[in-house]
Known about the structure:
The chain has a domain at 9-195 and 232-258 and 300-321 and 348-356: NAD(P)-binding Rossmann-like Domain (Rossmann fold). Helix content is 43%, strand content 17%.
Amino acid sequence: MIKDDFNKFEKRIAVTGGAGFIGANLLLYMVPKYSQYLFVNIDCLTYAGNLLSLKSIESDQNYRFEKIDICDYNAVENCINKYDITDIIHLAAETHVDQSISNPAKFVATNICGTFNLLELVRTKMEKRRCLRFHNVSTDEVFGTLDGPGKFTEESPYRPNSPYSATKAGADYLIRAYNKTYGLNSIVTNSANCFGPFQFPEKLIPLVIRNALAGKPIPVYGDGLNIRDWLYVEDNCRAIDLAFHNGLSGKTYNIGGRNEIKNIDLVKRICRIIDDTHSDEPGEPREKLIAFVKDRPGHDRRYAIDPSFIETQLGWQTEYSFDDALVKTVKWYLNNLEWMESCINGRYLKYYEETYTNR
Length: 359
Ligand SMILES: NC(=O)c1ccc[n+]([C@@H]2O[C@H](COP(=O)([O-])OP(=O)(O)OC[C@H]3O[C@@H](n4cnc5c(N)ncnc54)[C@H](O)[C@@H]3O)[C@@H](O)[C@H]2O)c1
């Protein structure tokens, strides 16, 4: 397709990190919904990016994939020119807190310098042509930890405690500065911990499922009493969609499901759901596999999001109850073990080579 043909699409949206957990769910939600937009998935396929997640849309006329590292300024610029990109939804990031503790450099490179590259491209090349929307998908972890009973609002100060959250905060600050200084048309959404299909099995919920099925110890940090506020990924995708289209430039929107739960209680619930689905198998309850391990350094005690602003301003609400979404999620992994194993055994990269490199 030549560039003019891409111009038949009303918007040409670059979605960075579209092969990751939230990015894939967002594309699976938005590509069929908006046939008038072109979606260009820019992802360099780190261990966390799996194109098998996007199999159902890979041949859609309004979807393209480009294997590009956002730290490579020239490659991103070529891609933006090739498709005449009009908007960016930015999700590409290094995201695992434990890895940010052992290797913070790559978090600074992707999360800060990669974001800076995108912003510079927008400032110097794209905004001259049109008013572009830059939507940054960020996290509640930028606010640090809650010790008392309150919740994070859009006015809460940033107090990141891990290299991961510090680099996400750095990116949010850059976006704020580009909005204030250069008038960038920007939106930031800070969401709670997400769960749902297609999450790499290093993260808590798929890790618990994988270990519980394999009869391996299920590691729980510290005393297990850390509290997270969980959000079903599809509810986050609908919030991103709303904020991208209707959010006010320069605003940030907190997205949370009002589902606070202690890690240990969450792990036990997952074990019970798996026990129930395997009730014909004899054996000990899977929660016997729980093994408390040394706490993560700087481990935040509690996160809780107040989503009132996006609810009142944009009319967003969760569609899923936490219990229903958790059962749905666990069953999805039980029915998609092959996908889960493809993340671990490198099959996701072979799929990319077989499917895309000869195109
Ligand atoms: N998962 C959550 O609970 C959660 C909650 C709030 C915010 N977020 C934010 O949402 C975004 C997506 O999170 P996720 O859980 O889907 O992450 P993920 O780790 O599952 O996926 C990240 C994706 O980014 C890609 N990527 C990484 N570095 C890249 C680079 N240099 N160039 C191009 N692509 C690169 C990876 O290949 C992968 O496909 C992140 O910005 C994260 O901070 C996540």
